[in-house]
Design a protein that fits this description.
By secondary structure, the chain is α/β, with parallel strands linked by helices. Helix content is about 45%, strand content about 15%. Strand 12 and strand 13 form a beta hairpin. The radius of gyration is 27 Å and the shape is globular. The protein starts with a helix and ends with a helix.
Length: about 475
């Protein structure tokens, strides 16, 4: 054996054994919270990484250093769990934070259902099999004027299911100006391909005329569906043209084709009147305009749990419901219960009970007074901050990022940069997600929920406190 090989073998012998590392006393608290299997797995990963480093010419760390590496791995796994976060970003529907927060009654209804058995598919009056989501469907048809409704686990699933059921193996016409990509790389052409339909593009990116749809129908007799896609945050301005939904609906009706409208957001009310926000179509208006099916999210401006709804013609919903994919995409009991409670708020007019609607409607001056109260409370605890005017966003692919006037705490620290301070807030308990503007941390008051004030102030004080 050459001298370098002997050195490497000596270093490998210094690598801590998995069982010795996993049994270390310093890991006892983690063992109680995460279990033996997680400890052993982390120990194996750490020792494997050490071996690779040694083979690359590095030195084996001490046992204490290896234990710290195991603890770091376990801590990273723990932080990856879903946990409560205070939203200080000013984005009302923050996709990374689960979009719409639930109302207290919706959260309570979901928790109540989750604690026991539930009548998810049981008719209590007859004792026989019931229809999953029956009340949700009743509420959605009442609120939208549609003949029938179906709920699945998100809007992407709703669009995929509708196209699969109605157009698999056939043509689907879509305007080039509506071939958008939304967050997470979700692209309309890819959904069409997955549904088994053949995409037929019409028009140009900025101009599509009714004649373009007519020509495509003449040239492609196998067309089953005309797909309309709301562009969400995407906008083209200037030299543009697009026929109205009612014009396309009349053409579809005359030619015996189905018009499917991928609306995305899911506004059940006119938010221009409700909150002064422009640009988000109302589901009922799309149904009235003649769309045969309208697909939309239940966790965006509707303000409920993650889900997707399809409303429209009863005969089409019957066909969609029969598709085997409908079972694979159906909504579970807890989100169904939460959605029921959310829709009940709409039915009885309790709009401010829906957090996202309340946040949209809250006057900016009310936000300012609340943030000024935080400023005063922090000053009493020796933390100096500023109150600044800012602009939030609705988010969630809605309103083309139309600004929402707001106020925020501006937090700056002489000993910490903005990135370090923001990281401390994110890793605190509770976690706080701010945004960084001009090397200062902002906590927007509009998106901090009622009841989170005291926890937010404690988190800010903890983040600003020097650490040894």
């Amino acid at each position: 054996m050459t001298e370098p090989d002997a050195i490497v073998r000596a270093r490998l012998r210094a690598v801590p054994k998995v069982d010795v590392l996993a049994r270390h006393d310093a890991l006892s608290p983690a063992r109680r919270s995460q279990g033996d299997a997680a400890i052993v797995r982390a120990a194996r990963e750490v020792t494997a990484a050490i071996r690779r480093a040694v083979l690359d010419g590095g030195e084996a760390p001490s046992l204490d250093e290896a234990v710290r590496a195991v603890l770091a791995s376990l801590d990273a796994a723990r932080m990856a769990r879903v946990r409560r976060v205070i939203n200080g970003t000013g984005v009302l529907l923050h996709t990374n934070l689960g979009r719409a927060p639930l109302s207290s009654s919706a959260a309570a209804r979901a928790a109540d259902v989750g604690r026991g058995y539930d009548a998810l598919e049981l008719d209590l009056a007859t004792g026989g099999r019931g229809r999953r989501g029956a009340f949700v469907e009743h509420a959605l048809t009442t609120l939208t004027g549609a003949e029938a409704a179906l709920v699945v686990n998100n809007n992407a699933a709703a669009v995929l299911l509708a196209l699969t059921a109605l157009a698999s193996g056939r043509g689907v016409i879509v305007s080039r100006g509506e071939l958008v990509e939304i967050g997470g790389g979700f692209r309309v052409p890819e959904v069409l391909a997955r549904s088994g339909a053949r995409m037929i593009e019409v028009g140009t990116t900025n101009r599509t005329r009714l004649a373009d749809y007519e020509r495509a129908l003449d040239e492609h007799p196998d067309v089953a569906v005309i797909l309309s896609v709301h562009p969400g945050n995407f906008r083209i301005s200037g030299f543009t043209e697009q026929p109205s939904l009612s014009e396309v609906a009349r053409l579809a009706e005359a030619r015996g084709k189905w018009l499917v409208d991928d609306l995305g957001g899911g506004a059940l009310l006119d938010l221009r009147e409700l909150a002064g926000l422009e640009g988000e179509p109302v589901v009922a208006e799309r149904v009235k305009a003649g769309a045969h099916l309208v697909c939309f999210s239940t966790d965006k401006v509707l303000g409920g749990p993650q889900g997707g709804a399809i409303v429209g013609r009863a005969e089409l919903l019957a066909a969609v419901r029969r598709d085997p994919l409908a079972r694979a995409l159906r909504l579970g009991p807890m989100p169904t219960a939460a959605l029921e409670a959310t829709l009940e708020h709409y039915l009885v007019g309790e709009l401010d009970a829906v957090p996202v609607l309340a946040m949209m409607r809250q006057p900016a001056d009310d936000v300012r007074r609340r943030v000024e109260g935080w400023q005063a409370a922090l000053a009493e605890r020796g933390v100096a901050v500023m109150v600044v005017a800012c602009e939030g966003r609705v988010g969630g692919g809605t309103f083309a990022e139309e600004p929402v006037p707001s106020y925020a705490l501006r937090i700056a620290c002489e000993t910490l940069g903005a990135d370090d301070l923001a990281r401390r807030l994110r890793l605190g308990e509770p976690a706080v997600l701010p945004r960084i503007v001009e090397d200062a941390v902002l906590v927007d008051g509009r998106t901090v929920l009622d009841g989170e004030d005291a926890a937010l102030l404690d988190a800010i004080v903890a983040a600003m406190t020097p650490r040894s």
